[in-house]
C-alpha cells in the first residue's frame, strides 16, 4: 500500500477513513496474507507519515473530534508490515502497529513518540505499544523527553528492525515479507499474534477502547 497524501501523509479524518476501508477490504480478501505499507511522497528526504493531522485537533466540533479519534483507534488495531522515512508521533504509532519495521538509513529521518515536545500526552495505548516494542525503560526515557531517534539509534533500542539503503527499502521489504509468508497457515500465525497481545487486549477492554 502506497501512502500518498501530500505534503507529509498527515493522518486526517479523510485519510484515516480511506486507510481503514482499504485495510478492511484486504482483510476480507482471502488471497491477501501480508501488507507492506510505504510512502510514495515525492519530497526528499521522504516522510513516512507526520502523524496525526494537527489541524484535526484544533477548533473542531466535539462530534468531529469523536469521529476522528475513533478512526485513529481503528487504524491502530489493523496494521501489519511497513517501511519508512520520518515517522513522528502518530506516524511512529502507525509503524509500531506493524510486525516488522524497515527504515531507510538516512540520518535526516527520525522516528519516535515526540508528544511531550509538543505539550501533549501520548495516550496510554500509544505508550503500551511502545513498551511492547522497546521495553519499559526505553519507553520511559523516550516518552518523557519526547525523543525522535535517528535510524541507528532507533535500531539500537529495537524501535526498528532493520536499516537499509534508501533505494533498497522496498526490495528488502518484499524479501522480508516473502520470508514471513513461508510460515504455514494463517491460523497459527494469527493465534500466536493474539496470544502475544492478550494482556494488552485485556487492558484495552478494561478501558472500554475495544
Ligand atoms: C481529536 C483528537 C482528540 C483527542 C486527542 C487527544 C490526545 C492526542 C494526544 C496525542 C496524539 C498525538 C499524536 C500526533 O501524531 S500529534 C502530531 C505530531 N506530529 C509532528 O510533530 C510532526 C510535525 N512535522 C514535522 O516534524 C515535519 O513536518 C516532518 C518531519 C514530518 C516533515 O518535515 P519537512 O521539512 O519535510 O516538511 P515541513 O515543511 O515541516 O511540513 C510541510 C507541510 O506539512 C505540514 N505538516 C507537517 N506536519 C503536519 C501534521 N502533523 N499535521 C498537519 N500538517 C502538518 C506543515 O505545516 C507544512 O505545511 P505548509 O506547507 O506550511 O502549509
UniProtKB/TrEMBL annotation:
Molecular function via GO: isomerase activity
Keywords in alphabetical order: Isomerase
Signal peptide segment: none
UniProt protein name: Dodecenoyl-CoA isomerase
Gene: ECI1
